[in-house]
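Good morning C.,

I know you're traveling, so I'll keep this short. The sequence:
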Amino acid sequence: MLKPPACSTNDITEEWVEFTGRLLDLISTPAVAIAIVTVLGLLIVLGLRRRQTRRWVVGACLGLIGAALLLPMFSNYLLLSLSPNHTSESAQAIVVLGRGQLMQKIRAEVAADLLEAGRAPLIFASGKGDAPRIVKFLNEQGIDPDQLDGEACSRTTLENAKYSAQVLLPRGIRRIILVTDAPHMLRSQLTFRSRGFEVIPHKAPFPPGLSRYRIQALSLKEAISFVTYGLLGRYLPKA
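The tokens, ready to paste straight into the viewer:
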């Protein structure tokens, strides 16, 4: 697999990506969610027993429970509303973004369907850990190795765009079909555009085994990341 000449990530980014990934996995576990709600319930009970702390404890706990229930649903609705829709346009390459092992197969299958439909002549997988597995899976499905490429450096959406640009733009590939999940699509599309790509969005479904709670947690994380990228100027065109 072709890799960019400068495959380097600063330590702060690596630590942050690892921390947020583990935190998301942790809070997405039903047992942990139940434990959090139980603790909050106990705090409410204790607050009701102590007049001095009743108001602020009950208010804080109810606020946290309300935020935990409503924010993920609102984030999912907002991102889906703003996310661009599919088109049937053709492109020079299909860029598949990694999102962890659970989502590799379904994204690879979506990319293979697009390739078979003649939407683009090349599948380009992006993501450290994800890209090699996606390319291997597609190769095992009988896709010509000459139609497969990718980079195995990136750990974030910003780096997906950066390293993909390092490989594809010098080859004259600017018009791409971008494959990722719906909550991630808007941030990804704007980030890739900032690197000089013309992006045609194509949303990949979540795998059947992914719980609704996990999808809502991903949506909340995406909403926060979308705003953060905007504040950091990551949607502005790069030279």
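Safe travels,
E.
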